[in-house]
Structure formats: C-alpha cells, structure tokens
C-alpha cells in the first residue's frame, strides 16, 4: 500500500507540474477583501476560489483511538506517561522524552535540532509526537516500525540520552514505585522491567496523544466548522497539489517522498532514508511529515532550516511541485493549515509525580 501511495504521489505531482494548472491561477487574487468569519484578514473575497468537499477527499478525520490489539490497560498507559517524563532514563538523568517533545508546546522543543547528552546536537529536527502513532513508520528515515520501537531509540542513542538497557533496568528497579507499576502494567511477565517494556509503555501513552481539530468536525459533516477564508485556503491547498502527499487522517505520515522532487533541495548533506537502506533510490527520501498542528511545530523540515510557516509553504511548492506561489496563495494555505491546530488533552500534558531516587538508584553520569 505504501508503495502504491508513493507511486500515486509521484504521478499526480508530475501531472500538476506539467501544466494542468498554473501556479498563478489557483489562488485568490492579490488585493483587499473583508474579514472572514474568524476575524482574520480575508484571503481575497473578490476572487475567492470555489471550494467543495471533494477537494479534501484525500484527508480523513482522526480515529477515536490508535490502540494496539488488545488495547493497553490504564495501568500501562499511566506507567508510560511517567516514563515519558522521566529524566532518569538518560545517562546523566537530565533528559526525558518530554525534553525534546514538549507536550506543553505541541510536542516539539522549537529548535532546529535538539540538545542531547553533554550538549551534543542531533542532526535532524525533532518532530512532534502528537498524532505520531498514526504514521506508517517512525523517524524521518522510517527506521522504526511504530511508536513502541521508536521510544527505545533515543534512550540508547549516544548523542541523545546515552543510556543502555542495563542502566535503565537498574534505575527503574531501584525504586519500589516503579517495580509495582511495571508489575501492574505487565502482569504476565516474570521480569516486567525491561527496555522493551519501557518502549511498550511509552508507546501506549503516546497512542493517546491525538488532537482532533476543527478540520475533523468539518470532515465529519459540520460545514460551519471552517470559516469562509479557511475553505478558500483549503481550495488553494488542494489546487496547488498539497494533498498528493499530505493525505489521510494525519494529513501526512503515510509515505516517503524525495526532498527536492522537482527542484533540488537546498541542503543535500543529509541523504535521508539512504542511511538506513543504502539503496541509491532512497537518497533524499524522507517520511512526509504530518500537517496537524503545523502552525505550532516549527522550525520546519528534517533539518529545521525554516522558521516561518509562510516560507515553508513557499519552499514546498517550489521544490516539490515546481510552483511559485503568490503572496495571497501562501496566505490562503496558511489560513487553512491553522484550522488543524488543537492541543492534546490537558490530563495528558500535566507532568506526573515521579518516584524519588533511592540509595540503590544509579547516580547521574555526565561522562
């Protein structure tokens, strides 16, 4: 299915850039217009592009849940939340999942690349964890199959948390509260405290981090959920060709795509999925990011090179679709994208109370 989606994406993109539609004729004309229903400046009422629901046929509402089968128990989810906020999983006990994927900041840290152990910097931008369980693969290069596998990666990465299984097990086993929590979360395991179960628990928590927005209400049939300006922006979004790759319930996260599909990507240093497969066909291939909460999750792209959402939209149109958008076209797309903003449930964002270290708990190691 993934291969079919990628092939379809390439076919549609080629059609779009071959002259099926001009880059200057799809969006609202420059000029005035009254304010939309949201109170935001209009995207050009006089030349507002016609919109109908079929333009967003490639999108889908968020599901009610993205659970494993059978669904994780409340005890497992609760443990996962504790571990998500637990800095003692890192070698120096100063970095947690929430350090780089802040739930109070829409799942990101707002930096081009994140700081790790001994202030080292990763080579790629930390994407939002919100709605990530919907993605067909994890990490920019797709090297992890799901959020459970992904959660174990940073813990063992020497640039990020720099720990290992033995240290994680020793740390968690040293605190009676964690020992009890693992027994409740994994009642069938003789030795429940393992690195794998840490990943399973964190994944169970992350699967709850869904953020239904006004777009979902619209896709479910509520025409009033989007303003006239947002619908006009959705028309520009569709006519530009964005849903070719940004599709499905996550509005992305469903396929790989080459960065620089039409025009070479400015930064060629990171070869993308090629680092995983060593196949030349995968050079510069990256997982298509989700556009949900995109208003709040900059800076953008795998290298965090673009601070402005307006500039990100222009860059994508230029390098992926071969189009130079007008100011009003960019404005319209951004107005629509802001309708995808929604915070996670407050009870998931609030940090939990963590157990106190004991005399047996390994000490922080800055080395």
- Approximate strand percentage: under 5%
CATH superfamily of the largest domain: Cytochrome c-like domain
Low-confidence stretches: 1-41
N-to-C order of helices and strands = HHHHHHHHHEHEHHH
CATH topology of the largest domain, which one?
Answer: Cytochrome Bc1 Complex, Chain D, domain 2
Number of strands: 2
Mean pLDDT: 90
**Counting H and I runs of at least 4 residues, what is the number of helices?**
13
Helix content: 25-40%
Number of domains: 2
Task: Identify the overall geometry.
Answer: globular
Could you describe the largest sheet, including whether it forms a barrel? 2 strands, antiparallel
User: What separation lies between the terminal Cα atoms?
Assistant: 45 Å
What would CATH call the class of the largest domain?
Answer: Mainly Alpha
Please tell me the CATH architecture of the largest domain by its name: Orthogonal Bundle
Please state how the strands of the largest beta sheet are arranged side by side. Answer: 1-2
């Amino acid at each position: 299915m993934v291969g079919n989606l990628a092939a379809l994406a390439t076919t549609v993109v080629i059609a779009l850039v071959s002259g099926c539609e001009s880059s200057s004729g799809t969006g609202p004309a420059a000029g005035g217009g009254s304010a939309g229903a949201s109170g935001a400046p209009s995207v050009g009422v006089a030349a507002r592009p016609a919109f109908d629901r079929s333009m967003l046929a490639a999108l889908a509402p968020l599901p009610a849940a993205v659970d494993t089968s059978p669904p994780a128990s409340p005890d497992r989810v609760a443990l996962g939340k504790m571990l998500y906020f637990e800095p003692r999983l890192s070698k120096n006990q100063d970095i947690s999942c929430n350090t780089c994927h802040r739930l109070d900041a829409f799942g990101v840290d707002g930096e081009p690349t994140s700081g790790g152990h001994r202030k080292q910097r990763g080579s790629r931008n930390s994407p939002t964890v919100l709605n990530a369980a919907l993605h067909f693969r994890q990490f920019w290069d797709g090297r992890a199959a799901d959020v459970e596998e992904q959660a174990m990666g940073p813990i063992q990465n020497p640039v990020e948390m720099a720990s290992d299984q033995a240290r994680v097990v020793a740390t968690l086993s040293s605190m009676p509260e964690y020992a009890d929590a693992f027994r409740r979360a994994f009642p069938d395991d003789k030795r429940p405290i393992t690195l794998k179960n840490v990943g399973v628990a964190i994944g169970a928590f992350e699967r709850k981090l869904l953020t239904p927005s006004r777009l979902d209400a619209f896709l479910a049939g509520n025409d009033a959920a989007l303003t006239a300006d947002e619908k006009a922006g959705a028309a520009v979004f569709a006519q530009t060709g964005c849903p070719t790759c940004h599709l499905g319930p996550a509005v992305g996260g469903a396929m790989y795509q080459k960065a620089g599909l039409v025009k070479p990507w400015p930064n060629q240093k990171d070869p993308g999925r090629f680092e995983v497969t060593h196949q030349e066909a995968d050079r510069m291939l990256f997982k298509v990011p989700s556009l949900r909460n995109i208003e709040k999750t900059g800076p953008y792209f795998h290298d965090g090179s673009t601070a402005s959402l307006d500039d990100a939209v222009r860059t994508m149109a230029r390098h992926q679709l071969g189009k130079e958008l007008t100011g009003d076209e960019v404005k319209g797309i951004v107005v629509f994208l802001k309708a995808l903003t929604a915070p996670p449930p407050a009870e998931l964002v609030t940090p939990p109370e963590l157990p106190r270290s004991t005399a047996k708990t390994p000490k922080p190691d800055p080395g």
